Amino acid sequence: MKRAAIAGLAVVWSTAAAQQRPEIHLAPASNIEFGADFTALLGMRELPDGRLLLSQRGEPGLAVADFRDGSLRPIGRKGKGPGEYELAYAIIALGGDSTLVCDFAYRWLILVGARVVQTVSPGDSAVRAITYACPLGADGTGRMLTRDFRPRRNSAENDSVDLAIVDRPTGRKTHVGSLRLHPPRTGAPQSVEVGGGVGFRVVPLDVAEEGLLFRDGWMGVARIQPYRVDWRTPEGEWIRGRPLPFHAIPFTERERRAYARGRRGVASAPVWPRDIPPFDKGPGALLPTPEGLLAVRRVPSADAPETRVDLVDRTGTLRRVIVLGVRERILGFGARSVYVVRVDADDLEYVRRHPWPRDVGLSPTGNLDRRSGGAR
Fold it and tell me: Mean pLDDT across the chain, nearest whole number?
């Protein structure tokens, strides 16, 4: 296990726009960096004892990391039997120290601590109720969030999908809102033959609106036009966020080359979004912070290649912006830490643990009553 010095977390205030976009930067510290040569880390959860559950596309696909001694211990193994998995990806905190791990085989592993205690089959009512068998977060009562592609009433609604809360014990769905699927494109996806069937070419950054259910029952939804974050309280009240700072940048050839740098097969894509979307997609695009803020990963541009993450409170107000290096991203948050992935020149990934500042005033509701702080 390799060890290296990493950066801690310090608050640095910008000048002209300090009141609108105060930034959080990294500063030198003395913690360790996990040098386990990870490949494509997908999910994480910090356990109450400080250990870290990790999933990745490589081996081991599911493991527990201990920053105290630098150890990395596999959990289960790849396979189709009980306690096994084909591809473990999303890791979702349930009540207490229980964790749900989504498997690419459309089933779940339930863990207590770092031990698999149950394999939930594809035939389970809750698994069948969740689109792609992987929820968009869960709360402490057993409810889960999902997209629901139920039949639309007319063709004008085909650009959106329903949001639904799923009761885990029964699989019963309650529709609570909707998400817009796609921003404007420069063309239409082209059909291609895939494995003897017909599929569609992947559109780079074909970002859809996305939701995340927090453990306390709040739900955050990142919207595209205008870029904002809406919230739904546990009681079912929607709070509409104000537009967040965003300047649309056309996806020119220069921007395409900048985005495709280091991403295999992307440069030749025949279809692109018309503009760079306001936020990213994929693992870690939306994350919950310890205070209940929504962390939204922005999309870099040719002139601003750094990784930036907006922290939005429950009035829909931008509170801080985390700034990371060009080949860095946030993997997730712990109770007092933020975990950052660094990607080296060989595309190998390393995990760093930074202390999370507790003195920057990041209350989830911005010290405003939720019924008056952005619902109009």
Answer: 83
DSSP 203-253: PTT----EEEE-TTS-EEEEETTTTEEEEE-TTS-EEPPPPPS----B--H
Residue linked to tokens 């990294």: 26
- Return the pLDDT at 193: 39
pLDDT at position 152: 60
Give 70's contacts (C-beta < 8 A, 6+ positions apart): 1, 3, 32, 34
- The DSSP code sequence of 115-157 is EEEEEE-TTSHHHHHSGGG--SBB-TTSEEEEEE-PPPSSGGG
What DSSP string describes 5-71?
A: --EEEEEE--STTTTT--EEEEEE----EEEEEESSEEEEEE-TTS-EEEEESSSSSEEEEETTTTE
Q: What is d(CA 317, CA 187) in angstroms, rounded to the nearest whole number?
A: 34
Helix, strand or coil, per DSSP, at residue 352 = strand
The rounded distance, in Å, linking the Cα atoms of 72 and 57 is 16
Tens of pLDDT, residues 278-330: 999 989 999 999 889 999 999 999 999 999 999 999 999 999 999 999 999 99
**Strand pairing partners for 102?**
108
pLDDT digits (tens, 9 = 90+) for 239-280: 999 999 999 999 899 998 898 886 766 777 778 888 999 999
Question: What is the spatial distance between Cα 64 and Cα 67, in angstroms, rounded to a whole number?
Answer: 10
